[in-house]
Amino acid sequence: MSERYRKGVEILEALTGNPAGHLTSRVAELAPDFARMTIEFPFGDLYARDTLDLRTREVAAIAALAALGTAGPQLRVHVAAALHQGVSRAEIVELLMQTAIYAGFPAALNSLQHCHDLLCEAGCSACQAASLVAGQG
Q1: What are the pLDDT digits (tens) for 20-33?
Q2: Most buried residue, 14, 34, 46, 119, by CB count within 10 Å?
């Protein structure tokens, strides 16, 4: 196990509060080298740098993934990590709204939809009302 991998696992676990294997096990089943690279490069190399803190890195990741408009599962991982790092639900919603300016409304709305359950607090009256309007309540 390389030092890059060890550092990447350490950072990923600090970032998410979950074991790293929780996020990479399905990839490792099919492509173990790809799973290793997924830990080493983004987390062992880039996230390990000192210039930005983990909170700021997660805000950047959310903005980039939301702008793609097609990265729902990865976006969810980074929204959950941002929440774990202290980014508020309101800040994430505002960030997704900001995405609409540069990436378009479809990308921003799709991103909000992908993360709806992560961004609604249990018992939130606005989320309950939205669920009723959508016929989910």
Answers
A1: 777 677 888 889 89
A2: 119
8-state DSSP, 86? T
Residues 85-95: pLDDT tens digits? 999 999 999 99
Q: List, in order, residues 6 or more apart from 55 with CB less than 8 Å away.
A: 82, 85, 86, 87
Angle between helices 72-84 and 3-16 (to 10 degrees): 70
We find that the CATH architecture of domain 52-137 is Up-down Bundle (1.20)
**Domain boundaries, given as residue ranges, for the chain:** 1-51, 52-137
With tokens 């989910």, the residue in question is: 136
Which tokens in the block code for residue 78?
Answer: 């980074």
Number of C-alpha atoms within 13 angstroms, CB side, residue 134?
A: 10
Other Cβ atoms closer than 10 A to 119: 18
Token pair of 87 as six digits: 């980014």
pLDDT over 90 at 122, yes or no: no
